[in-house]
Structures are given as structure tokens and as C-alpha cells.
Amino acid sequence: MKKGLLKAVALGAAAVMSVAAIAGCAGGNKAENNADVANDNAGNKIIMGTNAAFQPFEFTTTSGIVGEFDGIDVAIAKQIADDMGMELEIADMEFDGLIAAVSTGKVDFVAAGMTANDERRKNVDFSDTYFTAAQVMVVAADNTDITKAEDLKNNKKVGVVLGYTGDSIVTEDLEIPEDKITRANRGLDLVQEVKNGKLDAVVIDSATGKALAEKNGLKVVEDSEAFETEEYAIAVKKGNTELLDKINTTLAEMISSGKMDELAIQYNE
Ligand code: ARG
Fold this sequence. Notes:
Blueprint: E1 7-8, H1 19-23, E2 45-50, E3 59-60, E4 69-70, H2 72-84, E5 87-92, H3 98-103, E6 109-110, H4 118-121, E7 124-126, E8 131-133, E9 135-140, E10 158-161, H5 165-173, E11 181-184, H6 187-195, E12 201-205, H7 206-216, E13 218-221, E14 230-232, E15 235-237, H8 241-256, H9 259-267
Parallel strand pairs: 2-5, 2-6, 10-11, 10-12
Antiparallel strand pairs: 1-8, 3-4, 6-15, 7-15, 8-14, 9-12, 9-13
Helix pairs in contact: 2-8, 6-7
């Protein structure tokens, strides 16, 4: 794990845990009856809304933790469900639709590497922070003229994912002109455009940017002055304090046991 790109929130002493204990998570730990929490869902299920195109937090693979779904958020959600004695179901959708899905009760919570911010707080409640990140710029390996965020203003063609915090940072904070911005639903599609020279940079979250850069022979440029720290949190429907408390309990336990750090290491390899 590279420093600065992805940080699990540290609370107290980290216990050493085996990776196997984290990865599998098979079988419930506690079988409490909490069917009231996901009141609209049949039986004993709790539904996580996500957008599984955000490695290492959520992605699809041949055999994931829940069906084809894998990643840090999936591991966390599985633990939340296990602690509640419930079965985890995953609803994969466009990132843009997640806030509406949780606020209308289509899903019980959103775990999607989602940055907690005031804009979103108008519509959902957020858990405690479980990871911190920052935006980075993914550029061609031989790029020398983008070394800081300001350089993007220099007539650069910039890609952002629709509705991500990177979108509002590029649009509102950096004020890149609209005709220089390309928006897509997946970071991967934008990174292809950097690869073939149609875009100069993609602005995206650090850990995902790093994963995409590594896979595509590109590089990551950081600018800690321009890009503030972002706090990832789980979103629930406004006022659902019962579920929020349970989520926070599981998060605190995963942080203090060192499990969160283990997940960061495991999924960044
Ligand atoms: N942290 C960024 C945001 O909140 C990007 C999250 C993207 N997550 C995803 N699962 N696609 O906007």
C-alpha cells in the first residue's frame, strides 16, 4: 500500500489478523434477529447499493465475497450483515442514482467509496468515516506538463466520472471550461481515452486512479494542496438511526481490530 493514496481510518491499536479471516467472511458471526431494519425487504436480507466499477472498493470478479462482487466495501458490508444476522444482497447501479436509491428505500444503505459531503447530507445520513482519500490526476506515463492541478487549466482535456466528487472539483473548483471536460459513467472508459491520447488527464479518487493507472501503463499525479482529503462513509436513508448505529458499531470494531487496515493492504496488491 502506497502512503497517501489510501488510508484506513485508524482508531486505537491494530491487532494482527490473518488475511484469510478477512477475505472469506463466510458464515454469520452473530445470528441476531434484526428483520425490522430492512422493513421493506422480504425476510432476512439487507440490500447494499453500490456502483461496482470502483476498484479496490467494489468491482466484479469470477468469485467475489457476494456472488461476483468483491472489494473493500463488499467486505465491510458483509461484516455489517453478518453482525446483524442478515443476508447481504447487492444492487449494482450507476453512481449517480445511489443517493436516490437509498433515500427512496430501494436499498438499505450505500457503500460505494462515497465521499461524505454537505451536498449529499441534504438527502442522506452518513456513518462515521472508514477511509480517507483524495483526488489524483491520471496522465500518460511520459506526460511532463501536468504536475499540479492548476496545469489542467492550461487548455487540457480532462475526464471525470459523472456525479463523482472529481466532477464537481473539476467543474466548480478548478473551473475547467465545459468544452474541455469529458464525462463518462466509468473511470475505465476515461482512462482508455488518456491511453489513446484523446484526453490529457482523468481526475478520480486516489486508490482507484492508482489501480487504473497501473493496469493501463499510465501514471498518477498527486496535488495535496489542490485536492482536499475526502472521507468515505456509508449512507443510509435520512433518519434511519437504528441502522446507522449498527453500521457505526461494525465500522468501529473493524477499525480498532485492525481489519480495516488489512483490507486496505489486501485489496491494494
Ligand atoms: N469518492 C467519490 C465520490 O463520492 C467517487 C466514488 C465512486 N464510487 C463508486 N462506487 N463508483 O463521488
